[in-house]
Amino acid sequence: MFRSDNLLLTDEELRLRRNKRRRIVVSVATVLLLLAGGFFLARPARHAVKAWQARRHAGKAMRAMAAEDWSGAEHEAIAAYQLDRTEPEATRALARFLSRARQGQALEFWEQLAKAQPLTKEDLRDEAAIALAVGELERAQAAIKSLLGNEGKETAPGDQLLAAQLAAQSGAPNESRAALQKVFAARAATAREQLQAAVLELRLSASGSEQDKKTQADAWQRIEKLSSRNDATGLDALVLLAQRALTAPNESKSKQANEAAPASSPAENGGTATIAPTQLAAALDAHPLAKTAQKLLAVDLRIHSLSNEKSALIDDAIQRWRGAENESVLALATWLNGKGEYERELETVPLERSLQMRELFLQHVDALGALGRWEDIRHLLQSERFPLDPMIGQMYLARCYAQLGQQTASDNSWQRALEAANGNSQKLMTLAEYAEKNGASAIAANAYSGAVAATPNLRAAWQGKLRLAQSSRDTKAIHATLAEMLKLWPNDTAIQNDEAYIRLLLLGSNRKDNTESPKSENKPLVELEKLAQELVRREPGSLPHRTLFALVYLRENRPYTALNLYKDLNIAAGALSSSALAVHAAALAATGNTEGATEEAGKISRSDLLPEERDLISGF
Length: 620
Hints:
Helix content: over 70%
CATH class of the domain at 495-616: Mainly Alpha
Strand content: under 5%
Number of helices: 33
């Protein structure tokens, strides 16, 4: 049929038909190729669009962090990472946000980013800072080594500050002080870096020796100089000075005699304050960045100086901020509760106002609890006038029922709170700390264990487990916790020292006589002696390290050598722990100084000691 039809067509008609068929075939082939190409290229195209969107959200997160808009930064960083988990900029944004929010999970994202591309200097600084914050000293050391590794180039002051913090946490105070001096000497050091260095210097010089007093005076002088700035650093410096002033003796009887006198050098006056409390109060009030919390600190300074005017000053503060926005009212409510002014808090922030904000409502509940109004609290929580998180609500109900004598209901609420927090390390930590504070040790232990299970490297959770074990005076439980912590943080000298000390207590004494003997051949003691020797070498002024070393010598029946460790060790009376006193008393007794041992033992509260420590001084 086709061929007979063609016979009836002219040559020109046949040519046109062939061209038409050719165009149809080409069109169909083109469509098929486009469809095939679209099938294979659609996924990469979609990924490219998602990657672009992720980078855009990551950029917004970075800008929000620069503007200290942490809520916006969190939203954008999470959105970026959810769009494309393989996009380096999205990973960087989330890692940086978590680092600056002091969340240990940041380390996982820095590790992920490092596998995709080399970390920048800013990345390494954030990684080092969060590693130091959560006690991951090996990670911090690797990051800081990379920052300091540029030979021939001057190290940035901020990197020296990180090195100083690492040395301090690693039990190397001399190395830390050397790094701090480089920060102070660097012209490029920012005011923030100078302030942080001064604060670290204060922590490193807390033994009470004359040299440390001079060092502290120099540090306070640096802080006073920084307090004249009108920026955030200046405000933080003022807050530090105010907090120090509030711990000083009340000066109202002297009528502020020193205010009119010219300021002297802290080094000349033993490190005492050279800015009077009322001057600090005026500076806090006048600071352009001061918010209600800082202005209330100024009120505290005036109360400290003029205690007879306390009530009037509190009334003035209430009148000034009771009608302010919620953030200021929250600061006022927190301040009033902190001063024990619970009735005034309830009058200043009535229930209807407290219902406007969760934190305000919780301050209202705290004030009621402090006044013993537990039935009112139960009614409020059960009426659900303010929608609390289920874990928070059950947590408060548990305490309320306990105060009302309804123990079964309290236990049930604690259990419900634990179930509501399951798997969420942040909620579990909140519950654990609240339960520990209110005597629910079993719930606190379960919550801390749950937090560790959810986030194995969560240092605060391990420290909570350790506190509970210590409060139970269960030496084996204490050692088990410390041993697990040592696996996670093998280079932490504080954990090394404490684990070795508790292990040594559990080993017991090798000899019963009091004669000097050669070094013990007991392998555990040999290992512990090497560790103690290294710890003391690295930090000669550390009393815990000396105590460990002294106990090693006691176990080896070398009491005179043990006593020699305490010579020329200048320790402030307030820094003497019960453990150190017990070991020293035991060494005195072992050398025949029974009178000295009895006098030393009399300074110790036996309830503060572990059973094995009590055995050390059981004879006197």
